[in-house]
Structures are given as structure tokens and as C-alpha cells.
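Closing statement on the protoporphyrin IX containing FE sub-project.
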Amino acid sequence: MIFLIIQALVISFVLYLVGKFIVLPKLRMQFYRNQNIKEYNFFPFYGWFWDSILQKTNKHKDCIHQIKHISESADFKDQDIILSNLNSKASLLIVNPDLISEFLQCQQHYIKYELPFHSLNKLIGTGLAKHYGDGWKKSRKILSNMFTFEQIALQLGSIRELSKRYISQQNEKSFNIQKVFEMTAGASDLSIFLGFDMDEYKNKDGKTLGELIGSFANDVYLRDVGMFSMIFGTKATELGLRKSDKDLNERGKNLRKFMYEIILECKKREQQPGYQPKYPSFIHHLVQENLLNTEEELEDLLAISFNLFLAAKETTSKIAANVVYYAIKYPEQYKKIQEEIKTYVPNDDYTFADLQKMNILQANVKECLRYDTSGPFLFQREVVQDHTLGKYNIKKGTLVNCGYVVNFFNEKYFENPFSYQPERWLDSNNDSKMKNSHLVYIPFSGGARNCIGQHLAVMQIKAMAIEFFKQFKLPEIPKDFDTEKIMTLSYGFKNDLLLNLERI
Ligand code: HEM
């Protein structure tokens, strides 16, 4: 009898899995196939994210190799939208730039798909990047004042100082470029948001807030996109039935507590009579404007800072590390950037205006944001209301994303797209070609929900890279460096690039 019950339970579970993860998504995809949207692939659970979410790399050692190469395929090169699945839902990747533009302008029909960020939202709070509706408008309005050109330019001094400090104090014989830039970007982000020096506060294990946020966010994200959460739902992980879930939930609570205490300390310091920070931070503005009094305002600041930090640190440091990596790989770029540094920013007190004169560096940053962008996709959007996009009917419950990374590798927009050519950004013909192709080159997305930190990011990338080029002679890339690229919270090299450097 017991055997029969177990058998029935197993069969029901298998039927449930087949129904939810094969039959249902296939039926939902049929709605789009009927509109002549071609199916790119179908994999139970992950669809085209199979490689990226599972961090699997193919023989090309690049988890988004297939997606980058879609426009080379005769079947897909003229497609507006590409069809796949994610979880039990149909998933659309919009490639046509006019449709991308329309999509970015009708965000009222979407929310950000909760699943990958469920635990982060639950444990830390939603913050700007995940908010929508009125909550988003309110946060974006407050933050916009912090991200104007003038405000960003005021932060350059702090970024210059921190870049110099962190780069100078490393062992040059084993210089881990990604880690150093992560530390630098993390420290300057915390200084910009909360006005404190990252090394000032460490937890009982000697870890800085930056280190704790980075590792916690990655672990919790990978758990939420893992098979267990897909099958049993994120609520099951919340209950902490597995030891790993219990530990991770506990880590989240401790991190939140640690960050809250730091915010209270920072607030106290800002309120001291006569306190005038060297570089006015986000918290400084909030205190000045009397916007940091209630428990709710403190909670909001915690969630926003956490979010900004996550959105900023990895994406920015990965591009800065790529700028250096490609300049080493193509030494003529290294030399040209060093010459540009001698001409425009020979001393440590350069300004935002000086940075803007550096065309070669700018071209390298732009090319890295095309060739190896750290944010190749948006957060998935989930449709909340049936609507049309161009000639297509889009159904509630579908997941939608932007395929701008597909366009970055399309011959139609970029000559020799698979070769690293910063010069393309110095060629005025190319520039006008870009201008005529609306919303093709959008590494920071577009529309109202574009990246609020894009100008800050570019300034940070340049300042960190400048400090590196100023301090070191052209090194070699180690022969055994494995260039495998994977997707965690952002996209980039899987392995540490350890450089043996010689100071100038
Ligand atoms: C190279 C570095 C960066 C890249 C490639 C990048 C890319 C992006 C992209 C593609 C989006 C759109 C996401 C979506 O709609 O789903 C975005 C949004 C966002 N980014 Fe960035 N970003 C970078 C650096 C930064 C920095 C430095 C900050 C903050 C200081 C930041 C803060 C944000 C925030 C808060 C949002 C959400 C905006 C909103 O929803 O209103 N990012 N970023």
C-alpha cells in the first residue's frame, strides 16, 4: 500500500514537472509562433539563459556566445523578436531597435520579474532598480539630484584619491586587476552614497561592507535562479528548510543589521554641528534636506544604497578591468592612452573637463561597453497587461528583455563586430551611422528607466584606468590566462587575471 502511495506521489510529481516546465511554456510560446516569431530554443527551466544562468560555457568559453552570434544566423538575422522560455513562461528578446524604443517607452505594462531577486528584495528591500510605479518615481526623483553632471564632477576628487590609494598599495608582482578595481569602485561608491571610508567599518570577521554585500548578493542570486527555487518556489528557500538556506538567510539578516548600524553612525556624523564633508555624499544631501528622520526613510536609504552599490560596483569595475586588459592585448592602445594621459592629465588634480578631452580613452571605454559589456541584459520584465508592441500582441505573464547585445554584434550596425576596434568610435562616419540607428548602442539601456549612474560609471572607469596606466609599464598577459566568460550578477571573466607589473 505504502509502495503504491509513493509510486502515485512520484508519478504526480513527474507529471507536475512535465506540465509546468514543458507543456505550459510550449503552449505559451505557440501564441508567439502563431505571429511568426521564430523559436530560438527551448530548454526546460532556463531557455536561452541555460548557459548563462548555469554558468556553463561552451567550446567558445563564453556563456553568451550564442546570443552574441544570433544575427549571423540566416534564420534569425531579420527577426524583430526572438522566442524562447524561462521557467514556465514564454520569453521574448526584442532585437529590432524601433521595437526596443517602443518597449522602453511603455514600461507601465511591465514589472520587474521577481524570481531572480526575491530573496534580495525580501532580506534587504527593493530600492530603485527593482521598484516600479510610484515607489520608483519617488526614489528616482530624489536620486536624480545626486546624479547631475555637477554633482558627479564633485565626486571626482574622491574617486581619484581612492584609485591611487588602492592601486598603489597592491603587490605589483601579483596584481589582481578585477579585485583591485572592485575594491576601488566599491570604496568610492560607499563614499559617494554614505560618505564613509570603506575601511573604517569591518564586521567581526574583518570583512568590509563592500565585501559582504558583493558575496551575499551573488550567493543569494544564484540560489534564487537555481533549480530548487524554480521547482519549489522561492518561498521554500525562505522557510530555511535546507541548512544552506538557513545560513544564507541568517547572513542576510546580519548584513542588514551591520549596514543599518553604519547608516546610523553616518547620519550621526552628518548631524554634528559644523561638520563639513570633503566630498558631499548622498546621505549628506538627505540630512541637509531633512529627508532622513523616520524609520521608513532610514529603511529606504538602506535599500537604495544596497541597490546602488550592487548596480554600480561589479558593472563598473569589470569594464575598467576590460579597458586595461584590451589595452595590454593591443599594445598600441596602451601607448596611445599613456600619451593622452601625459597631454591632458599629467597630474593628480585633473578635472572632469580634462577627462572629456581624452578621445582615445573614451573610445576604448565605449568599445568595451560594446564588445564585453558587463550588463548584457536588462532585468527580466514581466507583462502585467495585454498590449501591442509594433505589430505584435504581447500577452500578460510573458517575460520580455532587450536584445541590444545582439545588435552590438550585427554587421548592419558595426563593421567587423567581432573585432575589438576602439577606432570605430573616432570615425565620424560610424558616428552618424549610429545616430541614424536609433537605440542600437545602449549599454546603459534607454528611456525613463535608463541607468541613473551612467555618467558616474564612465567617470569612475576612466579614473581607475588612468591610475593604472600612470603607474605601470605595459605588462604581458600571462600565457595561461583562461579567458572564459560567465554571467553572475554581471558578465565578465570567470578567472582572475594576475599581472606581473613594473612601476614606471
Ligand atoms: C559600466 C557600468 C554600468 C552598466 C553597464 C550599467 C547598466 C545598466 C543597465 C543596462 C540598466 C537598466 C536595467 C534595467 O532596466 O533592467 C541600469 C540601471 C540602473 N543602474 Fe546602471 N550600469 C552601470 C553602472 C551603474 C552605476 C555606477 C550606478 C550607480 C551609481 C548604477 C545604477 C543603476 C540604477 C539605480 C539602475 C536602475 C534605474 C531605474 O530603474 O530607474 N549603474 N544600469
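Residues 128-129, 140, 307-308, 311-312, 315-316, 319, 373-375, 378-379, 443-445, 449, 451-453, 456-457 surround protoporphyrin IX containing FE (CB under 6 Å). With this model delivered, the sub-project is considered complete and its resources will be redirected to Aim 3.
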